[in-house]
Amino acid sequence: MTGWTPIAEEAERATRVLHPSAPFPRPTRRRMLTVANQKGGVGKTTSAVNLAAAMALNGLRVLVIDLDPQGNASTALGVEHRSGTPSIYEALLGEVSLADAAVVSDQSHNLYCVPATIDLAGAEIELVSMTAREARLKEALTAEALDQISPDYVFIDCPPSLGLLTVNAMVAAEEVFIPIQCEYYALEGLSQLLNNIELVQGHLNRNLWVSTILLTMYDGRTKLADQVTAEVRRHFGDTVLKTVIPRSVKVSEAPGFGQTVLAYDPGSRGALSYLDAAREMAERGAAKEEVAK
Ligand code: ADP
Ligand code: MG
Hints:
The protein has helices spanning 6-18, 44-57, 72-76, 88-93, 98-101, 123-126, 136-140, 143-149, 164-172, 190-203, 223-236, 249-253, 261-264, 269-286, 288-291; strands at residues 31-35, 62-66, 103-104, 111-114, 153-157, 175-181, 209-218, 240-246.
């Protein structure tokens, strides 16, 4: 793009985001991903909603399950989540069907969200005394509920802890998606997360595996970001997506408008990088041998 003005470059990016040339390939079977990292602020919610929106804009059907009482994913998708709204909380208790709690996001008719309300804050404790407490989400994700929404991809946005809600997500899904922030303490706490995943594998969900790692909030001006990137790639190899998400003000502004960055500023680098990351995931999902481990 040499010789292009910044505005022309931005317009070109917006065109690529808003007018996709070819739809993303559909996965060979439905993919369900738990977006987990017990550290807060690493980009779990941002990645879940923006990847979901990118896929939906490109013809895939996507469901985002907000499993964080903060309800940040619901906010970013412009979905109502006041206390009392039918939400993931009622679905976990078995009071409403997951399909009845799901709403279409105004960002795309292909994009559904089961919101989280503040009521979910009590669930971590309430679940303790329930039967099959680790499998409530799995049970809520009935074939009937999933058939009604019929998503190609399901993203479960976890709270920043390794408590019972995150365990529920790991029991319900087959894949774990880990966002890693390109910062000094990025790898700290990761071994604890991996240990927990192993425990769930051993006792509750033999099919669970870490399928995808995404590097987020990359700041090209710092040497540190490159060191972290290299370190993560050395440890995790091809699990790490080639696309890296840059730190971008537009990405952080978007939720304040109840939007994903793809809707808020489709010409931004943040929007394009989430589009690229989503395409990479979709292409992997369509290549059977990758998903089959
Ligand atoms: P988590 O869900 O892991 O707690 P979030 O996705 O909410 O993390 O991100 C934490 C904060 O960082 C939010 O304010 C978000 O808007 C901001 N943020 C996330 N990704 C980026 C990015 N690529 N560039 C700039 N800010 C970002
Ligand atoms: Mg979050």
